[in-house]
Amino acid sequence: MTTIVPSASDSRDFDPSPAASPSPSHWNLPLAPPNSTSPPQLPAPPLGMSCITMVTGALSNLMALVIVGRARAGKRLRGTRARPYLQLASALLLHDLGAHLIPGALAMKLHARQRRGLGIGPAAGGPLCQLFGACMVYFGLSPLLLGGAMAMERCLGISRPLLHARVATPGHARAAVLMLCGLALLLALVPVLDGTGGVRYVPQFPGTWCFLPLHANGTRGSTGLGLLFSSLGLAALGLSLLCNTLSGAALLQRRLGTSRGGGDGGGGRRRAGWSSGSATSSLSESSRSRTSRWLDIEMMSQLAAITVVSCLCWSPFLIIIMTSLLRLHRGSGHEEGGAERLVLLGLRLASWNQVLDPWVYILLRRAVLKRAGRILHLQHSNPRRTPEATDRSVKPGAERRATEI
Hints:
The protein has helices spanning 47-73, 83-115, 127-159, 161-167, 170-193, 220-272, 276-329, 339-351, 353-363, 366-381, 387-394, 396-404, and strands spanning 202-204, 209-211. It is mainly α and 405 residues long.
């Protein structure tokens, strides 16, 4: 999600008249006593920097979608167990791209209105605010749910491959995407479709984004929906951590078992491989095993990086939402003056999740991982080698051809 927040200098452009300046309750902020001074606004990046971030994130997601699309179209992956994972990854990247473009465009529109002294308008919770709030909930929750589904799919594929072959089909992956996105969309549309007006999205400080009430003016319905949003997000992050831990343990156990039994298995294959047919079969089996191992390493590396990025970016925002709503539900009154700044900081941190996600697929590709593995292996076998010597040893034939030319 890309939200654009005006800088402190933008406050000079506001119309000070009561008609153009909504009351503090419209921003869902605590009302300060007349004698108190309001807390200073959090320094915000200029509009140009926010636009650069949005464009960079969108281009990064497009690059990652091209990489994942080429992997799905590759001959080596047709009919393999990697197809459900790649379908889920494509859905995740598409939602990250939408989170950059749609909420980012709405935030830019609100920023432009605020610079003209209009803001969201005196009628807090209008159609524009409802659309913005629904986009924030949908594009915030759906990537977290898809990340949890990806972690479950990999955990099943590594620990229970036979069950994975029967259950994790491309059709089931598409059904899972539709179900999870439908759940996120249903939660996002509850305030929009609520005819009673009990659950509504409201403008949030400093007036350039909308969300459920977090500090004041909230009903039981809005508080419950906000708690459900944060609980589902935290549960998806916890599920991803658990599944990735189990998958990593299964890979490590498999690696240790292969190392212990490698000698006997290799000798048996050599003794049984006197004929050309058995030798060809042994080589083919070894090649398939090596390809499968690199597939597992590639997908687990990507999943681990995505989980770490999601936890670092989303956990603060979700925890702040949950604690604010629980404090509001207990009726402890308005929060202290810095609460809105914490929410804004959490939102900015969460918006970086969609910027960093595509670089996981760009950098942690199989070709990059293989090259890094070769370099680390050569460095470990001969620590005195320099990186230049390592690069020359990786491709000696290319070096000789270049010398001959």
